[in-house]
């Protein structure tokens, strides 16, 4: 049952209230269920909107009958009719009771409470005993019912107009149960509805066989016990009972639900058993109930002609009074309808609702915005604030009540982007007071530059003409607002403000809402008005649409995806440039592309700076607090723009070099291709004079081929090692080390073993302090080798640079040889040897070469170009997918990124990962991102037509035009090799049209082939490494920052970009994690940098040339770092926990002794460490 309705993954009790309250596209859609899988969510959505038609969601909208019972059902006998109908219903129909039971079984306890509360507000019965799929087990749902508070007026309080308000499960009221024994043609649920209704208020409180879906066979709801309450309003003419009463309804036969029946007998004031007749089984069950006979009433339907004697027999055996056997012949709480109820209905939440002035102070709720709406709403959460009303009678007697209301209004309106004012007062004096208070608050918001929106809600206003007829009232409201605004403006000394519209944008049509009453009739037993739910839903939709259209707070950023896509196209345009063009033409093309990207970046740079200027002009954002960072923001913008422009410019230069190299290779290939094709045609001419077999022809071809290619020379290999060594000499040009470089042998032999530090690498000056720790220098050397992207410090010895250059020369040589292999003329000719042999044989035999040529063209020309296109696009697409998927938050900022990395480190509990993260921060971040990533035929149709749009002539000459057209149509996406094209189409004999058809077949085959290759590619790492645009590097640039780490504790700099004046971090770590140790005790240091720079302590390291230097004057050596001197700042519990857990291992790794950590640190748990991490990064 659960899998069919998409609930299996939530069973048991895994569907949370928080997930359901999320604001997403589904939550604001008003579409009906279109499939059985949508039924549960449609039901919940409408229920939380207090829409009494939610139970109709159990039937699909296109099923008109929806499970209703045929008219003849009332005239026929119904065997077990309360369970199923005689018709065999389709799978698309479901009994609403099954749907309700399934949702309760899947909902967690908090969602169960909310569902129960909303069902009670809709005057639905609520689950009292919930079955567990089999009738032997059930749950008493007291927890779910605990939030239902009802109010009523018993008749003995009518005169005093008092009332009772109480939690319904704790109320001491009579409890009546209704059950069915075996088959009964009388519906007890319908009978109960008649009893609990009066006059025209004939409510379908209980679902029964004659309502929509009620006749569908129940699958899991048998054994369900529903409860509802009758509550009097204190008016004799309207009330059915003078006192409150509770009613329970057991679904299904009591013989199948004995556990529930026994419970009901124990707790009920009276139990009513419905049945048609008393046969042997019924007789046995009834006569076993001797102990509870005082609570038992039998309701027997005489439709089947059961004899009076049969009934009397049961009465006698049970010793029941005469009145206990009856024979039948042919048959919320009153919720506050104000602002709290409005918010509850609008967003499905539960602000406190009761009579009178229920809300004290202010309540706040955060509702998560779903991923599908985040970009539209430009926010992650929606905050709801519900406050106590203004002009409360409870506070009116207090001297400072007016001041209290002013403070409250200012507080709420100041926090809010949208303010909803509920207009429900008829007293004009009170109305004016409220409007004056709110006018003061809005005026103060205008003073500080805050722009807010105000909506007035008029409740209990219904009717199709209500909006038109209320125009005079709305105009009167605006007049009062203008009057109160003028008074407030004079008090606030702003005489220039004369109207409410001078304070904020207000539209008399768009900012007033008429909401009908919540109830149909007199509460507490009145049904819910569906019009209320619909009107509130429209109001909510309008509010969210207004937020979507307001982009004033939208974050501006340089569109990296567009830049990457543009870069891809620019590179392709350069590669597709005419090979016969002059070099100067290519240079002009590259220059124009550089200018184009410069213009794009400059334009975006200007827009972001304008946004920044606009932001600083606002007064409502406390910009004075961040005024000092304005220059840093501008520098960051400039830095990012320069970085992107420099990166794109370098890439275009590389593509130009690639184009030049490719041109040289193709010129060589063209020369040899011409020789081969000339020899093929000469051999064909020679062989035409005689009749030869395929074997003889192949033999002749081999002799020709060997002779023609004997003098083909390969590309010359460059001395890569010599080039690298030359660069190294230039690097040392200003240092007296050239003599040491003269005796270097083969550079590729250097750096094959692990670099080992020796005492020769340590200054004798440093030795006198006896501070030789090879571990430190070794780790430093390893770090430099691993990253190989950092500039090597000047004091690093030549051996280390030679070691790195040895590695670089070997890797460069590999790439160089790979390039030579792929572009070697001999290799290229051999690749087409089979092609030329087939051409020769087909020409000799005069065979049709149409399909073979088409296949060769697709495989040798189009396939490589498409694969290159996919590789070029894949990098951009992966970056875009990650930044727009569920992982987008992890890359939204450096703080969020750091939080996620450290959170994962804590979960992994891997010491080596901690060491790598602290010591080799850049490598670890790149690896983390990399692991995260791990987690066209229409052109033929266009090319087959000439410039006039007419199909090309069906001759072989047209194929040249066809391919030319294809190149023109595809040049924006892929780059076709001219040499490969001419080789594959050498001496093609096929007419154009058959070739087009063969080409289409081959293209379709290629599509399937590529899909299979990409789907079944096992080495994803290798694929990602080959991409021209590497997703890891692009994501890395977004979140890495400048990469500098604190010189003491190694915490990364948190400043943005690379052009900030000073590096800084909010919270530093224990210095021992950054390898700092006490010189005397050799123990790792547990104190923070922020503490020591406020003390008299000293430090020494390689930067100070091992001279002791006061911490407080650290800026002498580290002027770029800002470390606040504050001894009160503590390390986060996260790093305290890490140091305690791995104290010994850090000491071993750093060649030191464990730190002396405070005893309190040892008591920190993993959960507290995670909380400390959240606090450090302000994550909730």
UniProtKB/TrEMBL annotation:
Full protein name: VLIG-type G domain-containing protein
Gene Ontology terms, MF aspect: GTP binding
Pfam family, one: URGCP_9th
Entry's transmembrane regions: none
InterPro entries given in the database record: G_VLIG_dom, GVIN1_dom, P-loop_NTPase, VLIG_GTPase
Residue ranges constituting the VLIG-type G domain according to the UniProt record: 324-566
